[in-house]
Design a protein that fits this description.
The complex is a heterodimer. Chain A has a single domain (6-136), classed as Histidine kinase-like ATPase, C-terminal domain (Heat Shock Protein 90). In chain A, 31% of the residues lie in helices and 29% in strands. Chain A contains 3 helices and 5 strands, in the order βααββαββ. Chain A has helices at 20-34, 38-58, 108-115, and strands at 6-14, 66-74, 77-83, 118-124, 128-136. Chain A has a 5-stranded antiparallel β-sheet, covered by helices on one side. In chain A, a hairpin with a 2-residue loop joins strand 2 (66-74) and strand 3 (77-83). The two termini of chain A are 26 Å apart. By secondary structure, chain B is α/β, with parallel strands linked by helices. Chain B has a single domain (3-104), classed as Transcription Regulator spoIIAA (2-Layer Sandwich). Chain B has helices spanning 29-42, 59-73, 86-95; strands at 3-10, 15-24, 47-57, 79-82, 102-104. A 5-stranded mixed β-sheet of chain B has the order 1-2-3-4-5, with helices on one face. The termini of chain B are far apart. Chain A binds chain B through residues 17-18, 20-21, 24, 39, 42-43, 45-46, 49-50, 52-53, 56-57, 96-97, 99, 102-108, 110-111, 114-115, and chain B through 1, 23, 25-27, 56, 58-60, 62-64, 66-67, 70, 86-87, 90-91, 94-97, 99-100. Chain A: One of its GO terms (molecular function) is protein serine/threonine kinase activity. Chain A: This is Serine/threonine-protein kinase RsbW. Chain A: Residues 13-135 form the Histidine kinase/HSP90-like ATPase domain. Chain A: Keywords: Kinase, Serine/threonine-protein kinase, Transferase.
Chain lengths: 141, 105
């Protein structure tokens, strides 16, 4: 009998675009270790990159500072929490892309919500944004 | 891995042919944006993107594609994307962008 898994991994990443690929590689390794299939690993990689992109572009915008990512690994569930301490300007509303009026930005949160099983966004004006998202293994979700 | 962009003008089909290799994300999307601006400045013709070796794209890259398409639409030209990987096709499907770009193969 194996014990229930409840492992935590924390990353602190500079507010610099070149580190987003490092986060993608890290999360791919974590999800692969847990046993996620390739399709779900791709979903998780895109979702975490969107959250990091959001933290870098809407967060503190100071490239001398860092933002934080936490991974919580359970038996069949990976949760990722991305926190920045920026202006806190995004909302939890789902905006379905308007094909007649496409903008060059604003797809990120929509993509996260489409790819992950659970998503919570807490954005406090002046305090920053926390994106918490989870993906389950298996086909039940 | 970063992003490699190879482009040439296909005289026979009268359109740009671009090969993307690697990843388009927040770090590399500016490079792609500049490439598109240059091409469209030079010749306002359709752009065919071969995505055979495109491993990854996210909203920042999709935003660049949308921006390029907007510019091309002013001249009634399209963006055609070929040889797309399933993970990227999925992104285009969920965002509805598969309806505004021409997806082939």
């Amino acid at each position: 009998m194996s014990k229930a898994i409840n492992d935590h991994i924390k990353l602190s990443i500079p507010n610099k675009p070149e580190y987003v690929s490092v986060v993608r590689l890290t999360v791919a390794a974590i999800a692969n270790r847990m046993g996620f299939d390739i399709e779900k690993i791709e979903d998780i990689k895109v979702a975490i990159a969107e959250a990091c992109t959001n933290a870098i572009t809407h967060g503190k915008k100071d490239d001398q500072e860092n933002f934080d990512i936490e991974f919580i690994l359970k038996e069949k569930k990976l949760t990722m929490i991305v926190c920045d301490s920026g202006r806190g300007c995004i909302t939890d509303e789902i905006n379905i892309p308007d094909l007649n009026n496409l903008k060059e930005g604003g797809l990120g949160i929509f993509i996260i919500k489409s790819l992950m099983d659970e998503v919570e966004i807490a954005s406090d004006i002046g305090k920053g944004t926390i994106i918490r998202m989870s993906k389950y293994m298996g086909d039940d979700y | 891995m970063s992003l490699l962009i190879k482009n040439q003008f296909d005289e026979q089909q009268n359109q740009w042919h671009i090969e993307l290799e690697g990843e388009v994300d927040i770090y590399t999307s500016a490079q792609l944006k500049e490439a598109f601006i240059k091409l469209i400045e030079e010749k306002k013709e359709a752009i065919k993107i071969d995505a055979k070796n495109l491993e990854y794209i996210d909203s920042t890259g999709l935003g660049v594609l949308i921006g390029a398409l907007k510019r091309l639409k002013e001249y009634n030209k399209d963006i055609i994307i070929i040889n797309i990987k399933p993970s990227i096709k999925k992104l285009l499907n969920i965002t509805g962008l598969d309806k505004i770009f021409i997806i082939e193969g």
